Amino acid sequence: MSDSAFELPQSSKGLVRAPKVAPIKAAPGATLFCDFDGPIVDVSDRYYATYRMGLEHIRAVSPEQGSSMPIRYLSKGQFWTFKQNRVPDRQIALWSGLEGEQIDSFLSHVAQIVNQPALLHQDRLQPGVRQSLKLLRCHGVRVVLVTLRAPEQVIDFLEQHHLDWAFSGLYGMSQAEAAYANQANHKIQRLRDAIADQHRHGYSTQASWMIGDTEADIMAGQSAGLPTAALTCGIRSNSYLKAFRPTVLLSDLRSAAQHIIDPLVLRV
Ligand SMILES: [Mg+2]
After folding, report:
1. What is the pLDDT of residues 60-107, one digit of tens each?
2. What whole-number distance in Å separates Cα of residue 161 and Cα of residue 155?
3. CA-CA distances (angstroms) from residue 103 to 9, 86, 96?
4. C-alpha of residue 36 to centroid of ligand 1, in Å
């Protein structure tokens, strides 16, 4: 296991509490690989705040333009719809009234601050996540997080929300900027590492799934030969995700948990 992978319940560093929900008989081989931003966490407020801070930064460093500078703040709804439809950040900056070098400056400022600890308190738990994780655990499904976030950030969030019992492993990236860049090759590698570790620890991944909210998650699952559940509650739209041909396209983790558990119940 690399330095950015954690076995959550077995953590010896006191970072993780003991499970609060008793595990029930496991269905053999039921391990779910799940992305963090999107399925578990709603990052839209943080991303929108970062966008606004990026524009304020440009206003501050362009004193010659003063307050007459024609910056147009998109609404949260407009901004998030653009993000979900993969409108490039450069285009969003242009539509917000920036031009030329201002756009480059805006982009680099946003990339610098978006995953900084001071903004992470804006992240929210997605609705229904706690119940979905309990449901999965009650059916013996192990959930392993595969994310491009820094593991320390993920552990902090899980502890704040008393969700550390819900996960059997955490595979993240040590570079804080990796989450925003969301490179598919990083996700492919992290999932590969996670699967190899499950096998090393004697867990089958035959009935496994990869769940996520972006093309990187779908591509990682497909590359590992796993069925994929793409969720539309995150940073990509239904129509955008559809083009990557996930096994199923669902609204959120609750629907995904139900979809995965139904065959287990039928098998019993
Ligand atoms: Mg995500």
Report:
1. 988 665 555 689 999 999 999 999 999 999 999 999 999 999 999 999
2. 10
3. 44, 17, 10
4. 6
73 C-alpha vs ligand 1 centroid, how far in Å? 25
Interval between CA 41 and ligand 1 midpoint (Å): 8
Parallel, antiparallel or unpaired: strands 169-171 and 209-212: unpaired
Rounded Cα distance between 152 and 161, Å, is 14
Q: Tell me the C-alpha distance between 102 and 1, whole Å.
A: 42
**Residue 40 contacts by C-beta under 8 Å, 6 or more apart in sequence?**
34, 125, 126, 129, 145, 163, 253
Instruction: Decide: 8 and 171 in contact? Cβ < 8 Å.
Output: no
**Residue 229 main-chain phi, psi, to 5 deg:** -115, 115
Length of the chain equals 268
| Cα of 178 from ligand 1 centre, angstroms | 12
Identify how many contiguous H helices and E strands the chain contains and give both numbers. Answer: 11, 9
Prediction pTM value? 0.85
Q: Write out the E strands in the chain.
A: 5-6, 31-34, 41-42, 124-125, 142-146, 169-171, 209-212, 228-231, 248-250
Using one digit for the tens of pLDDT, what is the confidence trace for 121-160?
Answer: 999 999 999 999 999 999 999 999 999 999 999 999 999 9
What is the DSSP secondary-structure string of 25-85? -PPTT-EEEE-SBTTTEE-HHHHHHHHHHHHHHHHHH-TTTGGG----PPPHHHHHHHHHT
CA distance 232 to 252: 7
Q: Is 13 exposed, middle or buried (0-12, 13-18, 19+ CB in 10 A)?
A: exposed
CB–CB of 61/101 below 8 Å? no
* Residue pair 152/5 in contact by the 8 Å Cβ criterion: no
